[in-house]
Amino acid sequence: MSGPSPAPVLTIDGGDLGCARLLVLLRNRVAELAAGDVVHLITSDPVAPIDLPVWCRMTGHGYLGPLAGTARPTYAVQVGAEPAVTDERHPWRLRQV
Asked: What is the reported pLDDT for 85?
């Protein structure tokens, strides 16, 4: 008997995008995914280990942390069930309704 199947994983290569552009990319992609799906975000942005956990906490996504054994820095994010909506151009700000 097997357990539940693992959540699908989507890999996004953010390259050397800075924080703002990286979060816009991530925001747009997670909006297309189901709750529980996992994103592996590859980025050389030196502030990603600081910004990603904060953004996840603010939006309701799960920050799973850095992945070990990858050739380039890679971070895992799990899509939340009821994420907060952020501003389209400023994904570090919650959208005002």
From this structure: 85
